[in-house]
Amino acid sequence: MFYFFLTAGSLLSSHVLASPSPRATTTTTADVLNYTFPAGANWPEPLPITGDWFFVHDPSMIQRETDSKYFLFTTHDKAGIITSNSLSGPYAVVGSVLPDNSSIDLPGNNDIWAPDVHFEYGEYYCFYAVSTFGSQDSAIGLATSKSMDPGTWIDHGEVWNSVTGDDYNAIDPNLFFDEHDKPYLAYGSFWGDLFQIPLTPNLMAGVGTPQEVSLNSSDTHAEEGSFVYKHDNYYYLFLSAGICCGFVEDDLPQAGTEYHVVVGRSEFAHGPFVDADGVALLDSGGTIILGSHGRVYAPGGQAIFVDKYYDSKVQSLQEREVFVYHYVPADGVSPYNDSYSSLGLNGINWSSGWPVLTNLNV
Ligand SMILES: *[C@@H]1O[C@H](CO)[C@@H](O)[C@H](O)[C@H]1NC(C)=O
Ligand SMILES: *[C@@H]1O[C@H](CO)[C@@H](O)[C@H](O)[C@H]1NC(C)=O
Ligand SMILES: *[C@@H]1O[C@H](CO)[C@@H](O)[C@H](O)[C@H]1NC(C)=O
Ligand SMILES: *[C@@H]1O[C@H](CO)[C@@H](O)[C@H](O)[C@H]1NC(C)=O
Ligand SMILES: *[C@@H]1O[C@H](CO)[C@@H](O)[C@H](O)[C@H]1NC(C)=O
């Protein structure tokens, strides 16, 4: 979910982006590790993952119906596929959704972004984005598979697109069904921020008029990575706000302007979404639920999936919602380098009516 590179003092192409640069001040590593978001949150650590490191950005995770194996999908690597038999790993990089690139005829069709995978009508649907940094000439594509294994994906090409001058950028897709069971794609990144478009019943094309559902009318319009999720009586719209990537350890952006996860909710799938203070997401609202803390820097690209797991305490199969995201480790071989993005997994406590991340015990 992505991409908009901010380099020191310069912005890579966008008509909404005049100066001033959000990097007005620079911050040291120590400042960042000391920074607390306004929410004063005490965010939990991600689940420790065993095994070798693997790259993850804009993750989508799902369990296979037949064997409960976990499939994790990532930006780059032609929509990389990573599998594991346990949430805590070890994870194995097994291949790609589109090893021969996307059939969409646009620059970027060999570097797939932000896969979003769902099980519908007895098949797995992978929505993905084709674009290049800072460009609005973008498209959302679809591939399907019966098993999710590498080599089984069929590319159906373009579902929806945007061109220079549109109100939106057609990347970061997320499939959801509204209260009338009608399929929609949530999407968007910068420009007019986040939108929804109806899909045809076979999920293969956008139809009708897109509706804007979230906008931060600040100088950068830095919202992307929509994820719409129904829990109890509300539809929650999750998004990633701020600077996603391009970090340099000694020249980090002002603390708090890096990627973090924000949420709003509505009784209706198409909004209006409001934050916990009642501010509309269309009016720059949003409640932060996850930001940098400890070795977790710039978390985002979030999704939720329902984990079916065996609970040894009650000796039966249970279900729980798992919050999936990527973060840039502030430690390791190359601190703050988003080429080393890692997988974050947490539980969710909804008791307040708002999602609060928890430790995940596996
Ligand atoms: C955090 O800030 C406090 C107060 O400014 C300072 O004493 C402390 O050294 C800082 N910690 C780090 C890790 O920078
Ligand atoms: C996919 O894109 C790569 C460039 O990343 C290119 O080398 C390769 O030939 C393309 N594959 C096909 C099947 O077109
Ligand atoms: C981040 O890591 C990549 C891959 O190792 C490397 O090519 C790049 O130079 C690193 N970037 C920084 C800012 O260190
Ligand atoms: C809106 O953008 C401004 C400037 O980038 C930022 O300070 C503010 O936190 C953003 N609002 C939300 C809800 O993310
Ligand atoms: C969820 O959070 C509430 C409020 O902090 C707490 O009382 C409750 O015990 C939590 N639920 C679980 C299952 O941890």
TrEMBL record:
<dbReference type="InterPro" id="IPR016840">
    <property type="entry name" value="Glyco_hydro_43_endo_a_Ara-ase"/>
</dbReference>
<feature type="site" description="Important for catalytic activity, responsible for pKa modulation of the active site Glu and correct orientation of both the proton donor and substrate">
    <location>
        <position position="172"/>
    </location>
</feature>
<comment type="pathway">
    <text>Glycan metabolism; L-arabinan degradation.</text>
</comment>
<dbReference type="InterPro" id="IPR023296">
    <property type="entry name" value="Glyco_hydro_beta-prop_sf"/>
</dbReference>
<keyword id="KW-0732">Signal</keyword>
<dbReference type="Pfam" id="PF04616">
    <property type="entry name" value="Glyco_hydro_43"/>
</dbReference>
<feature type="active site" description="Proton donor">
    <location>
        <position position="224"/>
    </location>
</feature>
<dbReference type="InterPro" id="IPR006710">
    <property type="entry name" value="Glyco_hydro_43"/>
</dbReference>
<dbReference type="GO" id="GO:0031222">
    <property type="term" value="P:arabinan catabolic process"/>
</dbReference>
<comment type="similarity">
    <text>Belongs to the glycosyl hydrolase 43 family.</text>
</comment>
<keyword id="KW-0326">Glycosidase</keyword>
<dbReference type="InterPro" id="IPR050727">
    <property type="entry name" value="GH43_arabinanases"/>
</dbReference>
<dbReference type="GO" id="GO:0046558">
    <property type="term" value="F:arabinan endo-1,5-alpha-L-arabinosidase activity"/>
</dbReference>
<feature type="signal peptide">
    <location>
        <begin position="1"/>
        <end position="18"/>
    </location>
</feature>
<keyword id="KW-0378">Hydrolase</keyword>
<feature type="active site" description="Proton acceptor">
    <location>
        <position position="58"/>
    </location>
</feature>
<protein>
    <recommendedName>
        <fullName>Arabinan endo-1,5-alpha-L-arabinosidase</fullName>
        <ecNumber>3.2.1.99</ecNumber>
    </recommendedName>
</protein>
